[in-house]
Specification:
1 helix, alpha+beta, elongated, 38% helix, 3-stranded antiparallel β-sheet
Length: 56
């Protein structure tokens, strides 16, 4: 499985935003770092599955 660079940024109310520069649309947030990491893993999996399904 390929690894992707994930950028984390603290946003309003202390939430953490996670983005993947190499995957447009891979953006999520979490109440803490653990949530943000879990959420971005799920976003990456769903986005890659969508790419495969639609032959991007």
């Amino acid at each position: 499985m390929r690894e992707y660079e994930v950028l984390y940024e603290t946003i309003e109310d202390g939430w953490i935003m996670a983005t993947v520069p190499d995957l447009p649309g891979a953006v999520t947030q979490g109440e803490n770092m653990d949530d943000a990491r879990s959420n971005i893993r799920e976003v990456i999996e769903l986005l890659l599955a969508s790419y495969r399904e639609h032959a991007f």
